[in-house]
Structures are given as structure tokens and as C-alpha cells.
Amino acid sequence: MEILGNIEYRKLQVTGGSTFIVSLPKKWIKSNNLSSGDVVGVECLASGEVQITPHEVKQIRRSVSIDLSKYPKSALYDYLIGAYVSGADVINVSMKEGIPIQQKRIVRRFLRDTRGMEISEDEDKKISIISLLNPNELPLQTSLNRMYLLVTSLVEDTLGVLSGDDRDTISDYEDRERQIDARRLLIDRQVAMALHSPQIERGLGIDRYQAMEHAVMAHYLERMGDHAQTFASLVADEQNNIEFEENQMPMAAIPIWLSSLRAIIRNTYSKDISVLIKAKQDLAKATIDLEQHENDLMSSRARATSVLSEFRISEIVRRLCGYSIDLTETLINMLIAGKTEASDK
């Protein structure tokens, strides 16, 4: 046996004249409570490697401890999000002198902004947070679809307000944006757990490359959510300063963006790349038209307040188109990757 780094190289042996066998590490056998006669799973990966897993996979709980006396208390939220996204099942927050009320508020904010996390122990000096959500229960595509619906509905409702609908229709824009962020964080968490566990990877029904691309798509949708929230906030605060012309830029580009993004999401797993190419081309043309419109606004002599609001909306729509183009390119990459075949040189 030869050891290089973390890899043990073992010799193949032949038994019965035609069956190849290789011995398994004794440490791995013991850690998985295996013995002679037990069944293990053997999976041939696309990379040409073979993956061996126990028939009954041992449940492993990942935990992290955060001692507030050793870290800046102002960064607690970032620590919690980092632990959540990395796939921690248990997060323990402690402080010998007692956890200040401000930090407990941050814990409650963390619970609001994530999915499936609950407090199991709440004491003066320690708070324990556990995960109640099975990462396999919610397919990644379901979360992406939900993010898409939240983004597009917020933009459509904001357009409705500009057309005369009640402003209360978009009064919850901040809450909608938080929901989009929560879905993105959940996808990041599921992807991280899939990278750690072949069992979770199989449960989600995707390979590691697809998992990473789903995380990338979620980030693009989150950025769209940020701009949709900015659009709603601008209209809610400055509706009277916005001159709404449905058939002129920048408003005329919004239906193009909505139609293209709808086609992109519907074709997430289809083999029809031509649909994605057309959506990308339509978005690219809209982006060019918006850039030209912004250049025209810069030389306009119209009322400054009106021009500023229109310029900001044009920039928002242009960025929505840009992130949708990025999303399209990611999907095209996934579809092409699915068509590649491995072969010997």
C-alpha cells in the first residue's frame, strides 16, 4: 500500500480467475460499523472514479460553537449566516458573562432570515440553535422558482402602482426582498451540504457541478430581487416625480425582461437551447436601448427631479436585464455540460 497525501493506493487482486477485488481501509470499516457480509454501495462516477458508501449511511450532525467573548459581538450575524450556509446542524452561541440582549435580538433576526432553524436551548449564557429541515425535502428548483415569482411579482406590482393601483400593494417590498434572500441562503446551504455528503447529493437529484450552478443562479436572482426592491422603494417614495410612459423607455423594456425571464425559467431543464439564446438576444438588445436612453437623459433639459427618477429606473431595468443574461449563460453552460462525454485521450 502506498500513501500520497490523503489517498491510499492499493493493489488490485484477482479472485476466481476473473473478479477484481481491492481491500478497504480498516479505519473506514470501523467508523461505519461494517463487518464481513455487510452490503456497500458502489457507484461509477462520470469522472471515471468509483465511490463506495455504506448501505446504511451514518447520520452526522455538524456543529459550530461561537464564543462571543472571543469574537467581535458586532459580527454575530455574519458568524451565524456563515455557520448556516456551511451546513451546520447545531449552532451554539455562548458568553461566560451572559449573552447581552442586543445579541439575542440578532439571533432572532437570524431565525427570521433563514429557513428551518429553531432555538432548542435559551439560557442567560448559552443559546443553542438546531436545524429542523431535511436538506432533501425541498428541491433546489423549487426555491429558484419561488425566487423568480417573488422578483417578477414585485416588479409587476410596482408597475401597477405607477398605473394607478393602490400604493399599499407594494408596502411589503422589504419583506418580499427578505424572502428572496432567505431562499438564496437556503440554496447555498443545501449546495454546501451536497458537496459534503454524496447521500444528500443523490437526494437532491443533481451532481456537484449542477449544484454549484444552481447556487450561481440563486445569486443572480437575489441581485434581481435587490433591484426590484429598489424599484418598489423608489416608486413608493417618489411616485409623483415619475413620468410614466408605458410604450417608451425605460418602461417599454420591462415587458421584454419579464417575457425573457419567464422563458428562461421555464426552460431550466429543457434541451431547447434556442429558447435561451433568443431570450439572451432580446435582453441584450433591451440593454443597448436602455444605455442609449440613459445617454439621452444625460443631455436632456427636462426637470432635474423627473430626469433623475427616470434615469434611476432605467438603470434598475438595465441591471435586471444584465443579471438575466448572466442567468441564461449559466443555464446554457449546464445544458452543454450535460452533452459532454468523457473518453480516453
What's the layout of helices and strands?
Elements: E1 2-4, E2 7-9, E3 13-15, E4 19-21, H1 26-31, E5 40-44, E6 50-54, E7 63-67, H2 76-85, E8 90-94, H3 101-113, E9 117-122, E10 126-131, H4 140-162, H5 173-196, H6 198-204, H7 208-238, H8 253-266, H9 273-298, H10 304-339
Parallel strand pairs: 7-8
Antiparallel strand pairs: 1-2, 3-4, 5-6, 8-10, 9-10
Please outline what is shown here.
The protein is an alpha+beta fold and 345 residues long. Helix content is 55%, strand content 13%. The chain has a four-stranded mixed sheet with strand order 7-8-10-9, with helices on one face. It has a two-stranded antiparallel ribbon with strand order 1-2.
What does this structure look like?
The chain is an alpha+beta fold and 345 residues long. It has three domains: 2-54, Ribbon (Pemi-like Protein 1, Chain: D); 63-131, Ribosomal Protein S8, Chain: A, domain 1, CATH 3.30.1370; 140-339, Up-down Bundle (Methane Monooxygenase Hydroxylase, Chain G, domain 1), CATH 1.20.58. It has ten helices and ten strands. The protein has helices spanning 26-31, 76-85, 101-113, 140-162, 173-196, 198-204, 208-238, 253-266, 273-298, 304-339; strands spanning 2-4, 7-9, 13-15, 19-21, 40-44, 50-54, 63-67, 90-94, 117-122, 126-131. It has a four-stranded mixed β-sheet with strand order 7-8-10-9, with helices on one face. Strands 1-2 form a two-stranded antiparallel ribbon. A two-stranded antiparallel ribbon has the order 3-4. Helix 4 packs antiparallel against helix 5, helix 7 (208-238) runs antiparallel to helix 10 and helix 8 packs parallel to helix 10. The chain is flat. The protein starts with a strand and ends in a 6-residue tail after the last helix.
